[in-house]
Specification:
One of its GO terms (molecular function) is hydrolase activity. 31% of the residues lie in helices and 26% in strands. The chain has 272 residues and is an alpha/beta fold. It has a single domain, classed as Carbon-nitrogen hydrolase (Nitrilase/N-carbamoyl-D-aminoacid amidohydrolase, 4-Layer Sandwich), CATH 3.60.110.10. β3 and β4 form a beta hairpin. α5 runs parallel beside α6. The N terminus is likely disordered.
């Protein structure tokens, strides 16, 4: 089990369920408007879907072009976070060789980048044609008084990813995604299972609408450490969806859900 949280601070998270946009500058303009709304509503952390800056299913050439703009995009995001005094978790292409990373960055409310993650589990031909797989799981880092880990889309479907983050002390796993039909059960079943089996919060932020051959299925959600929905969007709504996370709820749940301390790593070949 993780040690007690360093603070007893509630956290309000805003998930932006939106349609993909293939233009970097248009994405930044939309972000500017929507972040202001979330900040005014009292959100502490704002989350976008996977590869929000410029789109996900757009082909290798455009992904390369967007990754080349990463430094400028990063500076713009840091300015937005500081201006509105809100932390951000944003999906973005990050330069790498031979293909860019499918990445996300976490920026604190002072506009300082505090973590960066590259998607480690690539899904299907689209991911493999466009991206280089990351080589390590997310760090667990402090953001707005909470210990947070990152995953991207397909990553959260692997129980080992969430378990590793929980064992390293994560209280919340933030997961930008670009999940499509017909895989509704990822959001309705697997995300809740990852939360409950690890007694952590999981925030899952998806697109709606179409992009190329994909029809995105929404269902963005925050699941509590008992696996219950704290907020959930439907399959077609756009907008901001809020949930307030509680350290008290987290610790109370961990008193009864003791999977982590009841594990038998001597049987699993797991040295944790």
């Amino acid at each position: 089990m993780s040690p007690p949280p360093s603070q007893n601070t509630p956290l309000t998270i805003a998930l932006w369920q939106t349609s993909p946009c293939g233009d970097v500058q248009a994405c930044l303009a939309q972000l500017k408007e929507t972040i202001a709304v979330a900040a005014a509503a009292g959100a502490d952390v704002f989350v976008t879907p996977e590869m929000f800056i410029g789109g996900y299913n757009i082909g290798p050439a455009r992904i390369h072009a967007h990754a080349a703009e990463f430094d400028e995009i990063r500076r713009a995001l840091c300015r937005l976070a500081a201006q509105h005094e809100i932390a951000l978790v944003i999906g973005v292409a990050i330069p790498a060789t031979p293909l860019p990373y499918n990445g996300c960055i976490a920026i604190d409310a002072n506009g300082v980048e505090c973590a960066r993650y590259h998607k480690t589990h690539l899904f299907g031909d689209t991911d493999r044609a466009q991206f280089t797989a990351g080589e390590q799981l997310s760090p667990v880092f402090e953001l707005a008084g909470w210990r947070i880990g990152l995953a991207i889309c397909y990553d959260i479907e692997f129980p080992e990813v969430a378990r590793d983050l929980a064992l390293r002390g994560a209280d919340l796993i933030v997961t930008p995604t670009a999940n499509m039909e017909p895989f509704d059960t990822v959001a309705t079943r697997l995300v809740a299972a990852r939360a409950e089996e690890n007694a952590v919060y999981v925030a899952y932020c998806n697109y709606v609408g179409a992009e190329g051959e994909f029809s995105y299925n929404g269902l963005s959600c925050v699941c509590g450490p008992d696996g219950q929905d704290q907020t959930r969007a439907d399959t077609c709504a756009t907008g901001l969806f809020y949930a307030t996370l509680s350290h008290t709820t987290l610790e109370d749940t961990r008193q009864s859900q003791t999977h982590l301390q009841d594990r038998r790593p001597d049987l699993y070949g797991d040295d944790r």
